[in-house]
Amino acid sequence: MNFKYILFTFILFAQSFEAHAYLDPGTGSLILQALFGILAAIGAYITLYWRKLKNLLNKIFKKKKDS
Q1: Coil, strand or helix: which one is 11?
Q2: Is residue 13 pLDDT above 90, yes or no?
Q3: What's the first-to-final CA gap in the chain, in angstroms?
Q4: Among 6, 18, 30, 36, which has the minimal tally of Cβ within 10 Å of its Cβ?
């Protein structure tokens, strides 16, 4: 029974339909601006907390010396 639903869904999405839609160049620009904004926010977050991140990584990967 479930196989029939999966097959029906696959056939439904495998068909092509006419969209009658238009994406202007401003839409692509908006998407790029959003991606660059997210990357800038991630970069700012990392630079603000770089020392804490560096100390945490040093604690995790610190080599123990034999005395």
Answers
A1: helix
A2: no
A3: 68
A4: 18
Look over the chain and give the mean of its residue pLDDT values, rounded to a whole number. Answer: 85
52, 59 in Cβ contact below 8 A?
A: no
Q: What is the CB neighbour count within 10 angstroms for residue 34?
A: 10
Question: What was the pLDDT predicted at 41?
Answer: 96
Residue whose tokens read 């620009």 = 29
| Whole-angstrom distance, CA of residue 42 vs CA of residue 48 | 10
Angle between helical axes of 50-61 and 25-48 (0-180°, round to 10)? 60
Burial class (CB in 10 A: 0-12, 13-18, 19+), 22: exposed
Per-residue tokens: 37: 């904004």
Rg (CA), the chain: 25
Q: Which two tokens stand for residue 34?
A: 């959003």
